[in-house]
Amino acid sequence: MVGGWWLVVGGRVTNSEAETHLLARELAAALEAGDVLLLSGDLGAGKTTFVRGLAEGLGIDPADVSSPTFTLLHEYRGGRLTLYHADLYRLDKTATGDLGLEETGVRDGVLAIEWPDRLTHQLPGARTVTMEFAGETARRISISDPSTNTNH
């Protein structure tokens, strides 16, 4: 068990958007400065909903969180940690070094990256959060152990 992460290392099913939000909110308590989360899942799987839950758990207004598809990176301050939210969906494979993402999340906050399959190299210590459809509104959410993470 690593903090609150034991809840979903083996996978947990949420039955609504609200439950996905709540799960992420609860897990935010285990986050520390420098944590990197790689959010993997199909379109509509709940990645941005998960980030809204993280924001709320960090003390940031979840209504401020939107998908950063067109701006690439949003920064949310005002909570116990800064939350950086990147969405690589519109990019071809790219190096995180070119985007400055590695420097962003490791200092003062948490970095959540949607569509991590676009990265060209691994981010040591990152946890992969995998969201799979388990029904019309249900999602199976699992989080990798960072010591065994291969990122994608």
Description:
- This protein has a seven-stranded mixed β-sheet, with helices on both faces.
- Mean pLDDT is 82; it is low at 1-7.
- It is built from four helices and seven strands; from the N terminus they run E-H-E-H-E-E-H-H-E-E-E.
- The protein has 152 residues and is an alpha/beta fold.
Secondary structure class reads alpha/beta
* Count, helices: 4
Order of helices and strands: EHEHEEHHEEE
| Overall geometric form | globular
| Largest sheet entry | 7 strands, mixed
State the low-pLDDT regions, or none. 1-7
Summarize the amount of helix as a percent range: 10-25%
Strand order of the largest sheet: 1-7-6-2-5-4-3
Strand content: 15-25%
For the secondary structure, the number of strands is 7
Rounded to the nearest angstrom, the distance between the terminal CA atoms is 22 Å
Gyration radius over CA: 14 Å
Let me know the average pLDDT.
82
SSE diagram, text form:
Blueprint: E1 12-14, H1 17-27, E2 36-41, H2 47-57, E3 73-76, E4 82-87, H3 96-99, H4 101-107, E5 109-114, E6 127-133, E7 139-143
Parallel strand pairs: 2-5, 2-6, 4-5
Antiparallel strand pairs: 1-7, 3-4, 6-7
Helix pairs in contact: 1-2
